[in-house]
Design brief:
Largest sheet: 5 strands, parallel
Structural class: alpha/beta
Number of strands: 5
Number of helices: 10
CATH architecture: 3-Layer(aba) Sandwich
CATH class: Alpha Beta
Number of domains: 1
CATH topology: Rossmann fold
Strand content: 5-15%
Distance between the termini: 46 Å
Radius of gyration: 18 Å
CATH superfamily: P-loop containing nucleotide triphosphate hydrolases
Helix content: 40-55%
Shape: globular
Length: about 250
């Protein structure tokens, strides 16, 4: 992929997309995803890793709930990576990640991921550039391992929200009683580091793209979910799966 400049990349749907029509298409895609996921689980030859990254309030949780929430929970796993524990810090940075790589027949979703170790750590100067470059190579090798030796496809989404939309959503977490549980005072401090995060994300996109990134305009939830669901559907269809016959 060519170099991505996030400040030059749209955070909203193209004007040619109608909200009502797109939501209707999304509903049809979700029905198809249900069938495809059932087939993936039954055939058990492929697996899918979905990596979702984005700034605070970019809509990661909502995307996971609305795109994958109606699928069979036996075949879908979600892992949210928080700050590493003391035990995890005593291991290599991919140790806690590899344990959650998808088994054949499974869809594994990472809500944040191994990329935090070359994003937030660099923004806060916990990881120098030399170490970050080594980690990028390790990430590339890790993803190649999954793709080459476990028949795993990897979809990586960056939810591209505008700083204005982010601030509006963060304010909602203060005012809306149904969203106050999401409130974290530190989110506002992190938002002030916006430019640094954009720089680190752009470096990540440029150096860790063997499994390519999809930059998802995320100011409008209906469009964000349509893009993610469409990509998942197309990937599963390309597996050319078949139900296995009777076991002998």
């Amino acid at each position: 992929m060519g170099k991505i400049i996030l400040k030059e990349t749209d955070t909203r749907a193209p004007k040619s997309f109608d909200k009502t029509e797109t939501k209707e298409k999304l509903e049809k895609i979700l029905l198809e995803l249900d069938d495809l996921q059932n087939l993936l689980y039954a055939e058990s030859k492929h697996s899918l890793l979905v990596v979702i990254q984005g700034m605070d309030a970019s809509g990661k949780d909502g995307a996971i709930r609305n795109v994958f929430g109606k699928l069979n929970p036996q075949g879908v796993m979600v892992k949210s990576f928080k700050a590493p524990t003391a035990e995890e810090l005593s291991q290599d940075f991919l140790w806690r990640i590899h344990a959650h790589a998808p088994a054949k027949g499974m869809i594994q979703i990472f809500n944040r991921s191994h990329y935090e170790d070359i994003l937030v750590t660099r923004v806060h100067k916990w990881c120098d550039d030399k170490t970050a470059k080594k980690r990028m190579q390790a990430i590339n090798d890790f993803e190649k391992l999954l793709m080459a030796h476990n028949n795993t496809s990897i979809l990586k989404f960056y939810l591209h929200v505008s700083p204005e939309e982010q601030q509006e959503r963060l304010q909602e977490r203060i005012k809306d009683k149904t969203k106050q549980w999401k409130y974290n005072e530190n989110d506002f401090a992190e938002a002030k580091l916006w430019d640094d995060y954009m720089k680190m994300y752009e470096d990540c996109f440029e150096n860790c793209n063997d499994a390519p990134w999809t930059i998802v305009p995320a100011d409008q939830n209906w469009y964000k979910e349509f893009i993610i669901a469409s990509a998942v559907k197309d990937t599963l269809k390309n597996f050319n799966m078949q139900f296995p016959g009777l076991k002998k």
